[in-house]
Predict the 3D structure of the following.
Amino acid sequence: MYIIEGQDILVTAGESRILQLNRVGLEEGKVFSVIGPNGSGKSTLLRVMALLQSPHSGSVKFRGKKVMPRDRIKIRRRMAVVFQEPLLLDATVEENVVIGLRIRGMDTLSARKRAKFWLERFKVAHLSKRWARAISGGEARRVSLAGAFALEPEVLFMDEPFANLDAPTRESLLMELSEVLHSTGTTTFFVSHDFKEVAYLADSTMALFDGKPIQQDLPQNILERPATERLAKFVGIENIWPARVIEATPNKITADIKGKKIVVAAAGVQENGVRLREGDVIKIALRGEKVDCAHWSSKKANHNYDFAPHNPAKDNRWEGTVKSVFAFGDIIKITAECGIEVKISVPSRFLNEFRVGDPIIIFFSAEAPAIIR
Amino acid sequence: MDTIIEGLKKGLISIFSLDKEVLGITIFTLKVTGSATLISIAIALPLSFFLTLRDFIGKRFIISLANLGMGLPPTVVGLWVSLMLWRSGPFGRLHIMYTPTAMVIAQTAISAPIILALSTAALQQIDKKLRWHIIALGTSPLQMLLLMLKEARYSLLAAIMAGFGGSISEVGASMMVGGNIQGYTRVLTTAIVLETSKGHFDIALALSFVLMLLAYAATLWLTFIQQRRYKNVYY
């Protein structure tokens, strides 16, 4: 049974439908995430589920019981919300954590004790007596999280908790939050537009576009086997090609992309519920990190990714030339011209291995590509 | 120049010697204006919460009326209150014309729109998302109002002080509905008008210093509280 569940939710603004979904639920102890671009209805869904906004139609159930307007305050006191901007009251850091506990009926002494524990856990105890409006964005985010966890909620809602943070702060906070979530087993609903955060924290993910759910799956599957081209682009898949099926067997699909043959494992096809036949026109998505490459002359492959259980060379092996090489921090983006353009991501240590115009061999396993609608 | 110096001297003597009449007028002024301010708060604050938290047809019209009320000429208020309380008026049988009660009513009509307009603006300035945060904490409606009150306390205080200032400084309405009766409905402003018209500039100046002192004391208090807030923010 879901701890909290939304059914037939419809939220409108004038003529437009901001959110429309049949069912969304959170399992106890799990981290559920909603991913989507800005304006996709993620935050609206969070507010509806957190009982902060009433949908135009539909209902929210808490532990199997439909939430009635008179129960809202009582149930809100069993939940906590962390918003996109760290919303802190015009009071000290400690008071900001204590206030929620006091509202929920805890005596001042116990509330201060609990606040101290959580402020320490999020490494902001030294700011206790400081005015909340005078601390930095990263510190305020930690105070917000401490305040939410101090409430020991049955369900924690987080709306883009790492937005507008610098990369090192974001990374350390992400790790700390993950640790706290796992140690407390808090049921969590969080929304994000960053698929890396989702992959790191979530047990399951729903992709939301234009207020409608596109796919609900394990984060890894959404990242590697997105259901639509738009979602594929959103999760950062660089290679999306139109193709025609030339052979479909129970184990694999062979397709043609502008004269190039590509072999795709049937397992990936079935996951998206697509049944294919010869002559079908499809789209194939291939993540750049899933492509391995070797310099033609050295024939030395950089095995930066694990292709097990297949030998990549046996499934898909194309030859071409290097069209461009760009370094992006710790990775290099190579564009190879193999009759079709293939974008490849390799670790930065290979920066000097490839130059524009060099011959290149690329290969990837049949499990690497995904078929999208 | 001599008149001003003489007036200043007399004013200071009146203040420091606790002149019976000046003291009586000052205390009465504070009573009338204080009562009017308290009543205005009681009317305006709940109304400003309602205007902030509820959406309904005519809301903007009400806010525009409150904004208009901020610039309402006291003589117009005096006229309307007089018409209401006049013997033949709708409330004439209450016989409160030319009484302190009538003055409190008139001053309330002046300060309530000021407090309403400014406190509504103050409450509406609270970030809507912060309101969500307050609701998400599990607050009851009363707890939410108290937290919002706390959040907007400095701006609300300024609204109250502006209302108090509007009341204590007005003269037209108090004169019209109070009648400036010595020892009964005479306040600082009406006394200044009277003494000036009689050519007693020294007494008028003394009373004006007292009035300014009261206004400054109120401003000083507000400034002190506001500066303490900034000290808290920037330490």
In short: Chain B has one domain: 2-234. Chain B is about 80% helix and 0% strand. Chain B has a mean pLDDT of 88. The two ends of chain B are 46 Å apart (CA to CA).
